[in-house]
Amino acid sequence: MIPFAVQRLDHVVLRVADLARSRRFYVEVLGCRVERERPELGLLHLRAGASMIDLVSLDGPIGRQGGPGPGEQARNVDHVCLRVDPFDEAAILAHLGRFGLEAKGPARINFGAEGEGPSLYIRDPDGNTLELKGPSRDGASTWADG
Fold first, then answer.
1. Sequence spans of domains, the chain
2. SUPFAM superfamilies from the xrefs (predicted)?
């Protein structure tokens, strides 16, 4: 018997080339807030709803342990999915456009922790893919098809 039950993702750690640039992206574009800074480690903890996204500078003590930085042929992770609400595709795309960002295609229905729901994919400044996922079609929904 397993003596615990996984509840949710607690945090994800991404290695980044430019900590200040990534901080701006995650705070200004995605609305995360700085929870704690640990410059002696090259580490920034960001609050992402109930979870955390930690950014580790490639040139900091922790980042240097991981070798070369992410790129098309050497990614940190496949993608990280952030649950967003409401999911208004047009409003999200307009917001991203103000930062010179585009989604990697139109919204599509994908399966996630809450079931099937709409999502868009974008990339952060280091090329990490982020999925912005709306609520399940089966539950209370604030998004509309179309």
1. 1-63, 72-146
2. Glyoxalase/Bleomycin resistance protein/Dihydroxybiphenyl dioxygenase
**The pTM is what?**
0.76
pLDDT digits (tens, 9 = 90+) for 95-107: 999 999 999 999 9
User: What CATH fold (topology level) applies to the domain 1-63?
Assistant: 2,3-Dihydroxybiphenyl 1,2-Dioxygenase; domain 1 (3.10.180)
Amino acid (1-letter code) at residue 44: L
pLDDT in tens, 12-44: 989 999 999 999 999 999 999 999 999 999 999
Residue 65, SS3?
A: helix
In CATH, the number for domain 72-146 is 3.10.180.10
Q: Tokens 């967003």 appear where?
A: 84
Alpha carbon separation from 85 to 18, 56, 122, 136 (Å, rounded): 29, 27, 16, 10
Alpha helices, DSSP H, located in 5-145: 19-24, 89-97
Q: How far apart are CA 53 and CA 47, in angstroms?
A: 7
Q: Which residues pair with 46 in a beta bridge?
A: 34, 53
pLDDT for the residue 98:
93
Rounded CA-CA distance 31/13 in Å is 17
DSSP state of 7: -
